[in-house]
């Protein structure tokens, strides 16, 4: 393989890597409801029963039939089966959530009823005071499609439908490999060496995107070390390997030669986006995906939202995260034939997106306070008042 291919359009690159990841998505598994939060539905959530499954009272009161006064012939509480109301002018005391007896014609609220011995009378409200079967969902109705991330609300809905477990795709395992002998792991930068900013931050970003990542590994700047680290990461079961640095073709940029030695094929090799050039995604013969991120921190984050977010989505069976639409409060320049991802922050005072300062490729100050990247298409600039896409930071 070589590193000289023409850059791929930014939007096309995202779609391409998402398709590649979807083809090797993590397997579907069944997990108990209490373990499903944050995972992704691999099968649609289908109503296994009408919701509610039977008519239920919305209020405390009496369920009656026929003309009043009603003779009270029993009581129905939540959790018990209700006998039919067979005779006219009879009623049962009923609790909120209890099953409404067959034959009920009206429910009289407790506060609207007048008791006289074993009889009750009063004016029921005009609208029905109970929920009918299927009010919320019909039997067999698809409530959520595959690819939806499970939330606490969805778990509760699944439980109400009779599910004990869900078929989901779990978080794909990701590994971070940090290239660069110039990097320090501790202490102050100096004497030509800088602190590694990506090793500590990328695992957190990956976890927020929906991957499982416990940490990172520093890799020596030799071809042999690169090859060994990639082989070890692949053998560990990681579905996604993120590397930082080495995406150029300089004297210590060993990623391209390492990929060639391992027989990897490019999914995308360089993307027409600034900053963030160059970035890549490759696939090993064993199916693992490698995301090559630039070594400069801001460029690496551009690559993260551009390629890694679609990769994680594809591996879990989700769609590419949809961008927000925001209104600019200041001009943003274009970058010629490249898509420009411009760091912006949403101003809480007026809701407008404005560019931040300190946005050099090696800078983190602007990134740390930004909401995300405003997407300026190739060949365009943007002015205040323009509506643009916003790709949010994890």
UniProtKB/TrEMBL annotation:
Class of the enzyme per the UniProt entry, highest EC level: transferase
E.C. designation(s): 2.10.1.1
Gene Ontology cellular-component annotations: cytosol
Residue span(s) of domain MoaB/Mog: 175-314
MF terms (GO), sorted A to Z: metal ion binding; molybdopterin molybdotransferase activity
Pfam families: MoCF_biosynth, MoeA_C, MoeA_N
Job of this protein: Catalyzes the insertion of molybdate into adenylated molybdopterin with the concomitant release of AMP.
Species the sequence originates in: Allocatelliglobosispora scoriae
Protein name: Molybdopterin molybdenumtransferase
């Amino acid at each position: 393989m070589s590193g000289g291919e023409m850059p791929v359009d930014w939007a096309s690159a995202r779609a391409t890597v998402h398709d590649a990841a979807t083809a090797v998505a993590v397997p579907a598994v069944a997990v108990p409801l209490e373990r499903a939060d944050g995972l992704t539905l691999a099968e649609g959530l289908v109503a296994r029963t009408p919701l509610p499954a039977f008519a239920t009272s919305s209020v405390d009161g009496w369920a009656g039939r026929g003309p009043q006064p009603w003779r009270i012939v029993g009581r129905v509480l939540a959790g018990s089966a209700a006998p039919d109301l067979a005779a006219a002018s009879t009623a049962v005391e009923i609790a909120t959530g209890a099953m409404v007896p067959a034959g009920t014609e009206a429910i009289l609220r407790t506060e609207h009823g007048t008791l006289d011995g074993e009889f009750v009378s009063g004016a029921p409200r005009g609208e029905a005071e109970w929920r009918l079967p299927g009010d919320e969902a019909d039997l067999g109705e698809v409530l959520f499609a595959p690819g939806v991330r499970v939330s606490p609300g969805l778990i509760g809905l699944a439980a109400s439908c009779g599910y004990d477990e869900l078929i989901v795709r779990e978080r794909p395992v990701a590994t971070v490999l940090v290239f660069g002998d110039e990097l320090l792991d501790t202490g102050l930068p100096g004497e030509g060496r800088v602190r590694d900013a990506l090793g500590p931050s990328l695992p957190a970003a990956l976890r927020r995107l929906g991957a499982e990542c416990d940490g990172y590994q520093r890799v020596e700047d030799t071809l042999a070390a690169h090859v060994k680290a990639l082989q070890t990461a692949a053998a560990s079961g990681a579905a996604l390997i993120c590397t930082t640095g080495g995406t150029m073709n300089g004297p210590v940029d060993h990623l391209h030669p390492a990929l060639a030695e391992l027989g990897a094929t490019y999914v995308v090799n360089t993307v027409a986006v600034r900053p963030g050039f160059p970035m890549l995604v490759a696939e090993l013969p064993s199916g693992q995906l490698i995301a090559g991120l630039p070594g400069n921190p801001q460029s690496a984050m551009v690559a993260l939202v551009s390629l890694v977010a679609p990769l994680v989505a594809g591996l879990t069976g989700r769609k590419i995260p949809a961008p927000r639409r925001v209104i600019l409060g200041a001009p943003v320049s274009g970058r010629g034939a490249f898509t420009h991802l411009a760091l912006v922050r949403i101003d809480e005072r007026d809701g407008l997106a404005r560019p931040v300062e300190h946005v050099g490729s090696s800078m983190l100050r602007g990134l740390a306070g930004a909401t995300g990247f405003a997407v300026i298409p190739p060949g365009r600039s943007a002015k205040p008042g323009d509506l643009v896409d916003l790709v949010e930071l994890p």
